[in-house]
Amino acid sequence: MPKSKNEKTAEERSYDAASRQMIEVAGQAELDLAWDRHDAQSPACPIGAKGLCCRFCAMGPCRIMPGTKRDRGVCGATAETVVARNFVRMIAGGAAAHSDHGRAVAHTFIKAARGEAPGYEIRDEDKLRQVAPLFDVETEGRDKNDIAEELGKAALAEFGRQEGELTLIKRAPEKRQRIWRDLDVVPRGIDREVVEIMHRTTMGVDQDYRNLLLQGTRTALADGWGGSMIATELQDIMFGTPGNPWQTKAREPMKAEVNLGVLKDDQVNIIVHGHEPILSEMVVIASRDPELLDLAENVGAKGINISGICCTANEILVRHGIPVAGNFLQQELSIATGAVEMMMVDVQCIMQSLTRIVADFHTELVTTTSKAKIEGATHFEFDEDDALTSAKEIVRRAILNYPNRQGVTIPEDKSEAITGFSGDYIKYMLGGSFRSSYWPLNSNIIDGRIRGVAGVVGCNNPAVPHDAIHIPLVEELIANDVLVVQTGCAAIASAKAGLMQPETAVLKAGKGLAEVCETVGIPPVLHAGSCVDNSRVLVALSDIVGVGKENSRLSLGDDISDLPVAGAAPEWMSEKAIAIGQYFVASGVYTVFGVSFPTLGSDKLTELLFEEYKDIVGGNWAFEPDPSKMAALMIDHIDEKRRALGIEKARERTLFDMDMRRKLEAEG
Ligand code: NFS
């Protein structure tokens, strides 16, 4: 099939040099990429894009067009109701994905504690003893596996819980908890909230957009403070907390290489792609097996090179420094290098198009879980009861595929990044082992060296140039003394662009931020992990509020909504991003999304999310596709919060224009 490969140049499609090179290579080979399919799908249906298409019963589908005779669905549903239904179903989808991941981790965690899952163990006992009391699990004088089994069961029970409040809600500042209780949005159980959204959005149930949004909020909170937080905490205990100085004893940041240049032309390349680290952790261990290394040598390879794509990549990057081949829009490009013996996938963000691309190469696409099979891929059910044997079998298969390699084009581009900034590690970096705390951060915010903190997270989306919104946004934020914390594909974008190196502070950060980063020895852009690890940010924000309780001189208010912080997902595409955005907003964080916004079909609903929420939940949404305007919105918000705290110093906003960027690039 002839491809629309020339509709846009590689430069217009991606900011990233390695991706540009591979887009050209793929174009010459007439490979069909996400960008081509996006062009073929354009223009997008304007009704669906604004959330105005209702397909929830067979009287329609109804396309709601406010201001015309089609201003209601067949059942009479208004634009507000239809847009709200679609929006909260996105939240349900995102929360379900994160939470089902959390559930899978809890299952393995319990087996590991019982010794029923060889290869998995409780690695971070300190964190185990920190988290267990949150679930009222006694730790005194008990063996770590006993504690872990009880903790795992308690965590698992949160999913099916029917009444009361989710346990980890109590980690939020007290004022925040009161806001939620007053609104009656405290989640009762993780699964229950998702199911209730599905119920309320079927034909003829909840037809009040405000009421639908309350349930959307409750479900999003069940994700951030429930399913995602359980995933993060149990993974840390089982696989090790990123950068935990007490656990690794290394007290050194994790260094790793990022971008397609990590693929090796003389080694067996295995890419792990998806989200759950349960399999990839074992594959990393299997790849070091002497027998398999011998086998690799026998087939003519100099070793076995594991790298990752998407959040699986982030999980093994932040814990083991395993290289990252790329973010979401690089999954097809990695195969087009011809250098990948196997792409092994589990769940989420895996494009079905991979089966078409691998058909042109020797690469084998392997699905590993019964939850996510792809027609045309090889399915190899991963047995977690005998994980290492499963992992070794998969790795062996990849090795045996090495001799089938034909032409290889691996871009040279790769960057070094310092990663693994879990909350524990940031506190340690700031305060040392004896005074590990966020107090130095509060102090630097109060004296103005650090203006505020921004979370820049989320995906790639072929609707906007790849990484090209992320990078200028992050650069402009740090140039204005805003410390940036990142997760997901956004973090990979910055790592590729070299923004996660200590020298970035001197080269690109504002004077105050650079000074702090140099003193503490951190880059101004911190990689905190995968998308479920956004829960780390919630805990960090609560801890920053907590500093003020211990020392009023260092107080930044008594709620997350008082903090000079903001969030953004500049290139989002997944329902998971909407769930994350809603739980940040509902936790009191101003959050800006780029690309497009799925409620623009209803003025009233959008007004509720963008304006009224400020008074209702203390955080609100905004939509702005331009990175510089997005930075301006976030910085203005941070300054407004500084003024309210009485710590604002008059200063100009540094506009990071093209001239400045070119100058810096020339210097760098
Ligand atoms: Ni997050 Fe991770 Fe990437 Fe987006 Fe997908 S990988 S869970 S959803 S695309 S950031």
Overall geometry comes to globular
Helix content: 40-55%
The secondary structure category is alpha/beta
Give the low-confidence spans.
1-6
Give the mean pLDDT.
93
Description:
By secondary structure, this protein is α/β, with parallel strands linked by helices. The strands form four sheets. The protein has a six-stranded parallel beta sheet. Strands 13-12-11-14-15-16 form a six-stranded parallel beta sheet, with helices on both faces. A two-stranded antiparallel sheet has the order 1-2. Strand 15, helix 26 and strand 16 (621-623) form a beta-alpha-beta unit. Helix 6 runs antiparallel to helix 10. Residues 1-6 have low confidence and may be disordered. Bound molecules: FE(4)-NI(1)-S(5) cluster. Residues 275, 310-311, 328, 349, 458-459, 488-489, 530-531, 574, 576-577 line the site of FE(4)-NI(1)-S(5) cluster (NFS).
